[in-house]
Every structure is written in C-alpha cells, then in structure tokens.
Amino acid sequence: MGKGADMDGCGQFMKYSMFFANFVIFVGGVTVLGIGVWTLADKAFINELLGTNLFMGTVYILMATGGMVALLAFFGCLGAVKEIKCLLLLYFLLVLVIFVVMLVGGILGYVFREKVHDTMEQEMQASIRMYGQKRAVTRAWDATQETLMCCGVNSFQDWGDQLPDSCCIEEEGKKLPCRYESQNIYPEGCLMLTEMFVKDHAEIIGAAGIITACLLLLGMIFSCALFKSIE
C-alpha cells in the first residue's frame, strides 16, 4: 500500500512538473516566434547584401518551429492534466522532431555568425554596381546606409561619382547636401557595421533556438516519466 501511495505521489509530481515544463516551453516557443517576426520585419532589408540565404533561412526555420512548439506545448499541458497516454506518446514523438529541427536552426545561427565575413564583402562589392538597376539591391543599400549610418563598403569612395542620397547625414529630419561635401557624408563604411549588426542578431537567434531546444528536452523527459507512471 505504501508503494502504491508512493507511486501516486510520484505520478502527481511528474504530472505537475510536465505541466509547468510545457508552460515554460510555450513561453519559449512564443519568444522564438517573436524574435523571428521582429528580425523578419526589421532586419530583412540587409539580406540582399549578405551573399547567402543562411541568415534568413535560419529565421524562417525558427519562426516555424517556434509557432509549432507553442502549439505543441498547449497539447502537452492537456495531455498532462487529462493523463492521456496516447497523447503523451504523440507529444513525445513530435517534440523529438521539433527538438532536432530547432537545435539545427540554433546551430545554423552560430555557424552563420562565424562565416558572415567570408561572403559579405564580396557580395557587397558586387551589389554596389547594381545600385539603381535592381530595385531590391537599391532598397537594401539605402536602408542599410540610413539605418546603420554608413556609406559604401569600406568608405564613400566605393560609390565613385554615383553617391546616393542615403549616404548623406540627416539632421532634424532633413538630408544635408553631400555630393560634393564629404563632411556631410557618413564617415564609416558599411562592411564592418553590417557584420557587427548581423553577428549580434545571429547570436540572439541562435541562443533562442538552442535554449528552447533544451527546454524541449526537459519536456520529453517529463512526458516519458508521466507515461510510465500512468496505469
């Protein structure tokens, strides 16, 4: 009888532990989804200058899995409260798949962070020649220069005689005339600033993915324990 009571107590502990773990996982999934949406909405302009789709590909992976994790965590809470064994088993299998995908997405964020310099300078030098000819590249350069307050790849001299207005310093909401006045041009090139900008955001994305993947591992452990404790 003591053993049965002990098992009941253990089962109850696992039940509420899994419920709490899935609540934390739900918050993690929503956080990852939010970071992905923020990055996509506010940072996607820079993608044309990177020379690779790895950065935005990682964002899309984590957005999709973040949304799925939040939904799955809800069903994990339901399975824990209702003590439905088949739902717990399905939960475990789905979480295992998402765990792998999210872990890969998080690692890709860090891999991109280390490789960003290798491709960026070459792509930026190539794309600067397409300014004014390709709309996406033109918008990317203008947005990058105005957002990061920089000009050209290494300096404004990269533009030659085709200096765009986005290189001009802005004061009180107005662009200063800068075509023939270098003191009114953003002094720093965009390569270093863009590299720092992307690396910082890739680190945030990577960390969010890996932390949430670790939380999923916790959810799998509790789901297995609860599955075994249910008679």
From TrEMBL:
<feature type="transmembrane region" description="Helical">
    <location>
        <begin position="204"/>
        <end position="227"/>
    </location>
</feature>
<feature type="transmembrane region" description="Helical">
    <location>
        <begin position="88"/>
        <end position="112"/>
    </location>
</feature>
<feature type="transmembrane region" description="Helical">
    <location>
        <begin position="60"/>
        <end position="81"/>
    </location>
</feature>
<dbReference type="InterPro" id="IPR018499">
    <property type="entry name" value="Tetraspanin/Peripherin"/>
</dbReference>
<keyword id="KW-1015">Disulfide bond</keyword>
<protein>
    <recommendedName>
        <fullName>Tetraspanin</fullName>
    </recommendedName>
</protein>
<feature type="disulfide bond">
    <location>
        <begin position="151"/>
        <end position="168"/>
    </location>
</feature>
<dbReference type="GO" id="GO:0005886">
    <property type="term" value="C:plasma membrane"/>
</dbReference>
<dbReference type="InterPro" id="IPR000301">
    <property type="entry name" value="Tetraspanin_animals"/>
</dbReference>
<feature type="transmembrane region" description="Helical">
    <location>
        <begin position="20"/>
        <end position="40"/>
    </location>
</feature>
<keyword id="KW-0812">Transmembrane</keyword>
<keyword id="KW-0472">Membrane</keyword>
<comment type="similarity">
    <text>Belongs to the tetraspanin (TM4SF) family.</text>
</comment>
<dbReference type="InterPro" id="IPR008952">
    <property type="entry name" value="Tetraspanin_EC2_sf"/>
</dbReference>
<keyword id="KW-1133">Transmembrane helix</keyword>
<dbReference type="Pfam" id="PF00335">
    <property type="entry name" value="Tetraspanin"/>
</dbReference>
